[in-house]
Specification:
Dna Ligase, domain 1, 18 strands, alpha+beta, D-amino Acid Aminotransferase, Chain A, domain 1, six-stranded antiparallel sheet
Length: 386
Amino acid sequence: MDLFEYQGKQFFAGYGIPIPPGEVAFTVDEAVAAAERLGTPVMVKAQVHTGGRGKAGGVKFAATIDDVREHAGNILGLDISGHVVGRVWIEQASDIAEEYYASFTLDRSAKKHLGMLSVEGGVEIEAVAEENPDAIAKIWVDPVDGLEEATIRDWVASAGLPEAAVEGAVDILGRLYEAYVDGDADLVEINPLILTEDGRVQVLDAKVTLDGNSVFRHGSYTEFDETQTRDERETAAHSRGLQYVGLDGSVGVIANGAGLAMSTVDVVNQVGGSAANFLDIGGGANADVMAGALEVINNDPAVRSIFINIFGGITRGDEVANGIVEALDRVDIEAPIVIRLDGTNADEGRVILETHLSESLQMASTMLEAARRAVALADASGGAGA
């Protein structure tokens, strides 16, 4: 769950991390009113879930109220890499002396949290890693042990931050780690973390990705979830509690489990097709869940065939089969369906499905065979795998 910059800053502020004063605005008049309250000069910053805002003209310095009006008018409605700007962040301009980079994320291979700190902030960290990897000081933190102040001080020293920034950076990094762990974040990034001309260290830009599965522990995260960027298909799936990502192909994919769903998308590509989506129905494949999944895919005009790939574990194959049959009675499906059913009670499930098979409802014994049939059906219907 990616946050807008202003949401990330508000998230940081909740842990005592200093941020410049600012307000979000949805119209030009709101932007002007915010600037009048904050006092100029201000920055007018597009709020989108993508990078490259500055290069696209989405970040502007405004010395006067007239500048705010002009820049807000230009930025609102701007298309940045397919994301249309619907809100701007009006923030008091900062006098920047130096820019740094700081972040925490999970290093899955090391099974530890990874902290990165660099004096080369304000640019993409990937570019720094490629051109000057020694400029990035890294630490690995055992979740059990946590992060001690002494470790942070050694980390700051190894990164080469100047004396004027040390105390402020040590304090912010400690709070940043707390926000990362306590807030169930996948990523917390400050780029840049700045030292101002008057010696203060504060956040200038924030990137935060929260674990969407942790919403039940954080009541305030509901508002973050409501601002996620989703197309119509993703919105419909989200309303049904389905894990869905829209793609550009013609074969609709339904699977139980993220790993199986990803493998299904891959095998469709392997046999020359292209998936229209990634859809994980999770551990439950009852009629309600299956009907919801079929409705979402059925409403996608690009779908020419549907590949249902289920491996029964805790959910038994006969339950899945009954769920599919009942769901097909509820939803008027336009595209032909290919089903692959395996795992617990798969034989019983196949017996249930056998009596319902037709040209538009087929069954295959292996994932590869099912994928080939689904792609062939999509091609025959004009999908051409794309």
